[in-house]
Amino acid sequence: MSRKSVHRKQRKPILESKFHNPILSKFIRGLMISGKLSTAEKIVYDALQAVEDKVKQSGLEVFLQALDNVRPLVKVKARRVGGSTYQIPIEVSDEAGWSLAMRWVSTAARGKKGSSMEERLTREILEAFEKRGDAFRKKEETHKMAEANRAFAHYRV
Q1: Is 9 inside a domain boundary?
Q2: 137-157: per-residue pLDDT in tens?
Q3: If DSSP codes are grouped into helix, strand and coil, which group holds residue 12?
């Protein structure tokens, strides 16, 4: 196993067609299943339109604010020291924070059953915007875990 650090160039994101927003593009591609990009785009655009109708604000702005509300600042990482494993709090970079927020929102929307994906995604975005819902609860749990294990921060890598 090579221990040499690898420096990779940051790739330019492929922008989606309607808003040309890199964060939304990444979210759409994360939501996509089996390579069906047009289906994922339709789901997200319909959800943003429904959000816009309900809140009377730009759907993209509400979406970005919702992701920002869900975005974690710290996370815990398991580390073995001696014979025991500690959960060590680690700060999350901006890029990783956005990725976690997107994953939590899409997972929370997929977890709800009984309606179409557009409706579930709309509901989850609105709940995240209002600082409640499954994705926001996940962020709160992560922050509580990090706070509870703050004593082990000196084991940080």
Answers
A1: no
A2: 999 999 999 999 888 888 776
A3: coil
